[in-house]
Design a protein that fits this description.
It contains 10 helices and 8 strands. It has 248 residues and is of the alpha/beta class. Bound molecules: zinc ion. Zinc ion binds at residues 29, 136, 144, 146.
Length: 248
């Protein structure tokens, strides 16, 4: 896949990365605004304090707002695999889409093609494992829905970007909610409040609650959208077990 042309559109909203080493996560968003120009303007307005490294228009045009080696401000309060400063670890890509607030719609083919090419290029530059290609909702399940259930994660995985579950027949068999929480946590999700571990959570007499439920919902939104909101069903459990195995 050739590197797509990239249109420079610098934003002042960035700072130094606070960890050593190259980025090792890719976080995908939708803009959630009426149109591309308003999203671009907002991400370049110093007052907004938000940005991303790239924004992709519906017609596939790619804008670069922040250099890869700088810390863009796209993740906000978030968590993945025990870490909370996701901006310092990641590259953030915004896709123009009105989102759930303004009329959520499928992502056009030209936009997805540009995303696949840009992502493949970034994966060739940085050591980003496929299980760390994530959506904003994965790293902030209680706050965020983007890029949402209409995003074609399977198509992206088929283009070599990101992980897609390959369950075995036994993966959908009997489970306990404690195991589900542990698997979600092992994969990277925050399953207890304030970033504490599942072990510490249950040691305090707590049980499956809002954080774990949100993590399961986010997991389904990404990998098993047909099961979204159904709780732990057979397909979700099978996908989760398969993903944890394949990311190990
Ligand atoms: Zn987002």
């Amino acid at each position: 896949m050739s590197i797509p042309p990239i249109i420079p559109h610098p934003s002042p909203n960035h700072g130094p990365r606070r960890v050593d080493g190259p980025p090792d996560m890719l976080v995908i968003h939708y803009t959630g605004m009426r149109d591309g120009p308003s999203a671009l303007a907002r991400m370049c307005d110093p007052e907004s304090q938000v940005s991303a490294h790239y924004m992709i228009e519906e017609d596939g045009r790619i804008f670069q707002l922040v250099p890869d080696d700088r810390r863009a401000w796209h993740a906000g309060t978030s968590f993945w695999a025990g870490e909370m400063d996701i901006n310092s670890r990641s590259i953030g890509i915004e896709l123009v889409n009105p989102g759930h607030e303004w009329g959520y719609q499928p992502f056009p083919e030209a936009q997805m093609r540009a995303l696949a090419a840009l992502s493949a290029h970034l994966l060739s530059l940085y050591p980003i494992p496929s299980h760390r290609v994530l959506g904003h909702s994965d790293i902030a399940p209680l706050r965020k829905q983007d890029p949402g259930e209409l995003f074609d994660w399977l198509g992206l995985a088929m283009a070599g970007v990101g992980l897609w579950p390959d369950p075995r027949p036994a993966d959908g068999m009997a489970w306990e909610m404690d195991e589900i929480a542990r698997l979600l946590e092992k994969f990277g999700y925050q399953v207890a409040p304030d970033g504490i571990s599942w072990d510490a959570h249950i040691a305090h007499g707590k049980t499956w609650d809002e954080s774990a439920e949100a993590a399961l919902f986010a997991f389904q939104r990404h990998w098993v959208p047909a099961s979204m909101g159904r709780g732990a069903d057979r397909d979700s459990v099978a996908a989760l077990r398969a993903l944890v195995r394949d990311s190990g």
